[in-house]
Design brief:
alpha+beta; Jelly Rolls; Arc Repressor Mutant, subunit A; 2 domains; four-stranded antiparallel β-sheet; 43% helix; globular
């Protein structure tokens, strides 16, 4: 099965070129950068930390379409006229961002056309990744979506240890479920099976995931046959409960 788990992000050189046009801000862990449906303007670029984008589905539950890591953008819906933010944005840890208002974005494109191509390429790559995630939500099983999500987390060094393995503590478990778009029960069943098969190591309440082994499992097609046969409507319903 073909899947896309990562892409190049803006490097230090591109961020330096952006800096004279942007407003730099630091956000403490848990701080809400903006809320859904509020007036949007410009776009943000992450310099350090992580920004979680969350759509509230119902009380106590949500869906996370994206975690913006260093070199990635968020809030780009603000580049369109009279736009509103499509999600909530919250700093998952102490973070730093660059903010380009719509006016400053236009100035950057006008005055630095060569460098602005890198930013536009980044925006298009992220859009393609979001479209790919939409495809996963409507066509893949919970196990396939979980593995694809874990592989992207590894590619962006999100929740990874020094040895490259992903560490999932209790506080990160809910976020993982929201990224996968599945119930806690469904994710627990899949992780239990992956643990039994030796892809995940359990240390107390912490799970240690080896992304290299998971990539082999995803490509081999050794997946959950029952969930893979669910019709699209059932898969979508799972994501909403």
């Amino acid at each position: 099965m073909e899947t896309s788990v990562g892409f190049a992000r803006l490097g230090d050189a591109e961020l330096e070129n952006l800096a004279p046009y942007a407003a730099r801000a630091s956000w403490p862990a848990g701080f809400v950068v903006y809320q859904r449906a509020t007036a949007a303007d410009g776009l943000f670029i992450v310099g350090r930390g992580r920004i979680v984008l969350r759509s509230r589905v119902r009380a106590g539950r949500g869906f996370v379409p994206w975690i913006a890591s260093p070199g990635e953008t968020f809030g780009s819906e603000g580049l369109s006229q009279a736009s509103r933010y499509a999600t909530d944005a919250r700093a998952d840890e102490e973070s730093e961002t660059l903010f380009l208002s719509s006016a400053r974005f236009r100035a950057f494109v006008r005055e630095q056309p060569q460098h602005s191509l890198s930013l536009i390429n980044q925006l298009m790559a992220e859009r393609a990744a979001l479209l790919d995630k939409l495809r996963e939500l409507t066509t893949l099983s919970v196990e396939q979506r979980l593995i694809s999500t874990l592989l992207r987390l590894a590619s962006t060094n999100t929740f990874t240890r020094d040895d490259g393995r992903i560490e999932l503590c209790t506080s990160r478990y809910r976020l993982l479920c929201e990224l996968v778009g599945a119930t806690r029960e469904s994710v627990s069943l899949v992780l239990g099976r992956l643990t039994s098969d030796g892809f995940v190591e359990r240390i107390g309440t912490t799970l240690i995931v080896s992304p290299g082994l998971l990539a082999d499992r995803l490509e081999s097609g050794t997946l959950d046959a029952e969930l893979a046969l669910l019709p699209v409507s059932d898969a979508q319903e799972q994501a909403l409960h």
